[in-house]
Amino acid sequence: MTQKEDPAAHQVAGLLLAAGGGRRLGGRPKALLEHRGRPLVEHAVEVLRTAGCARVHVVLGAAADAVRERARLDGCVLVPNPEWEQGMGTSLRAGLGSLAGTGTRAALVLLVDQPGIGPRAVARVLAACEGESSLVCAAYDGVRGHPVLLGAAHWAGVAATATGDRGARAYLGEHEEAITLVECADVARPFDIDTPQDLAHLE
Questions:
Q1: For the chain, which terminus, N or C, has the lower number of CB atoms within 10 Å?
Q2: What are the DSSP E strand ranges found in the chain?
Q3: What pLDDT digit, counting tens, does each position of 150-169 carry?
Q4: Phi, psi of 13 (to 5 degrees)
């Protein structure tokens, strides 16, 4: 007898934003920073898969060729973002665009530079998805953070407002009442790897 598959695993795609150039890190691409013996981008893909995302799209920008060569991203859909220097908003638009026509009902967006967010937090956000109208955010002591789940009904609106490094922030701010917050402070730490001092978080 075959094990019953979780339909959410196929209806929700993991969307990993991994295009950043690490400007404040001296131009070291964030995707290739080492964490637990491998590139951050590999670590983040495993987090999404362990949490239950069968489909994973990875948006690449800075040093994209080197990331493809050095990171094991088998089975992922690699999405180029030639406009990555203009900010995270361009990566979010490219990633959502790559999901069009795939039958995906929601995108679970994870940032490559937040290794303190593991599978348990991602799985909680994934479990709160109810379909294409869902908007779900992890919360840390009540404060909205990542990961963020965007139902397909919101993609056009998110893409229209995703500029600079704001990502989905403007859209989420306009639709605050529709957001389901999922508390994750007990299982994750939402720090960013942005500055040389932040590198101390890497293991």
A1: N
A2: 12-18, 34-35, 38-39, 56-60, 77-80, 106-111, 135-140, 143-151, 180-183
A3: 999 999 999 999 988 888 99
A4: -95, 140
